[in-house]
Amino acid sequence: MPSPTTTPTTTTKILISPCTLPDAPSLARNNISAFWTDPTWPLIWRGKTLNHVISQATLRMPATLLKDPTHARHQKAIDGATGKVVGYARWVLPSMDGGGKKAVIEEEGGKEEGKEDDDDGESDRQVNNWWISARVPDAAANISDARRAEIEAAKNGADWSYDRSLDVLDEPMLAMKERLMKGKKHMQYLAVPPTHRNRGIASLLVSSGLTAARQLGLDVFVHGMKAGLGVYERAGFRLLDHVIVDDSRFGGKGEYGSYFLVWEGGVGDGGDGKKGDGEKRG
Description:
This protein is of the alpha+beta class. Helix content is 29%, strand content 19%. The protein has helices at 24-35, 41-44, 50-66, 137-140, 145-157, 171-181, 201-216, 229-234, and strands at residues 9-11, 14-18, 72-79, 85-92, 102-106, 189-191, 219-224, 238-245, 256-263. It has a 5-stranded antiparallel β-sheet, with helices on both faces. It has a 4-stranded mixed β-sheet with strand order 5-7-9-8, sandwiched between helices. It starts with 8 loop residues before the first strand and ends in a 19-residue tail after the last strand. Residues 1-7, 112-120 and 268-282 have low confidence and may be disordered.
């Protein structure tokens, strides 16, 4: 099946394009700076500076970009005037094994930078050709074993130890996530740094992914934070459920929230420009 394609999008001098390995330092700075504005997020990195966490995320980012090229899709937003990265989105396509019928966005706050996915074998050969324009080019290139070993060693050597005592705050969220999203794939990041917010950058990144989802006939789930609700609701998502946890005993503001939304616009056109039968793919 031909893959859907999206052309670079410019609005107020913002370009949406795929990510490459040389983008790793810029993406790390963009992402950590974005999540550092969440009141709870710096608490898990207590005693560590923003610049330190950015430096460690930089070591980890190449491995993240190369991981699971069958399902993972990465896009960056570039300021056309400066050439700087001003936004990032990571989508994960569902497997074609009948178990996951929805594509999912999940704003995890960047603590884990994604978990290992099972290899679904033959059923995912088709998925590998979906939305090729958002796949990291380096992931499909012939990178040497030695280079891959260097990238993996840099990731493993990074200081990514944070305060696990706050994991208790995620327990109600994880229970709700299991109920609503069991067996489904996810997009683990939507990040725009505070210096470039309120310019429509997040909306452009979401819109690019929804264009591909519409062509593929996929619904899209979101696990997001409160700050992103407006972006998702304007894009046509509806709220399924939410949970608020009191984080004040850890030094937070008393409102640590997770929100689960769905976008059901995936009518599908077969990926080849021909209108399909309206059934959603899974």
